Amino acid sequence: MWVNQIILAVIGISGGLIVAGGLFSFIIELGIAADFADRTHTADKILLYEDCVALGGIVGNLISIFQIHISHGSWILPIFGLVSGIFVGCWAMALAEILNLFPIFVRRLKMVRYISAFILSIAVGKGVGALIYFYKGW
C-alpha cells in the first residue's frame, strides 16, 4: 500500500516540477526580470532576479500545499497583496508588449498623445476590479 503512495508522490512532484519549470521559464522568457534589471541598472544581478522568481514560486507553493500558518502574519497581507498586484500587472504588461498590443492600439486609434492615460486607466481598472472582487468576498 505504501509503495502506491510513494509512486503517486513521485509522479505528483515530477509533474509539479515540470509545470513550475515551464511557468518560470515563461516568466523569464517574457523578459520581466530583464526589464526590471534594465530599468534599475542592475543587469549584473539578473541571475539573482531569476533565482528569486523561482524561489518565490517554490515558497508560495509550499505555503499553499502545506497550509503553513504565519503567526502575526496579518500585517504581511497588505504588503503581499501589493507585491502580488505589481507582479501580475507587470506580467500582463509584458504579455501585451510581446503581442505588440500597444503599437497596434496606438496606430489604429491614433492615441499617441494619450498613451500615458491609457496605461494609467488599465492600472486603475485592475485596481478597482480587485477591490470589487475582494469586497464581494467579504
UniProtKB/TrEMBL annotation:
Annotated InterPro entries:
SpoVAB (IPR020144)
Q: Which UniProt keywords apply?
A: Membrane, Transmembrane, Transmembrane helix
Q: Does the keyword Membrane apply?
A: yes
Spans traversing the lipid bilayer = 6-34, 46-69, 75-102, 114-135
Pfam families assigned to the protein according to its UniProt record, in alphabetical order: SpoVAB
- Protein name per its UniProtKB record: Stage V sporulation protein AB
Species name: Muricomes intestini
